[in-house]
Amino acid sequence: MSDFPSQQQDKFVLRLPDGMRDRIKSVADKNGRSMNAEIIRVLDATFPILPKEIEEALGMLGNATIAMGEQHANYDQDQVRAIIRESCETILDWANPKDTD
Question: Is the pTM of this model over 0.70?
Answer without folding.
Answer: no
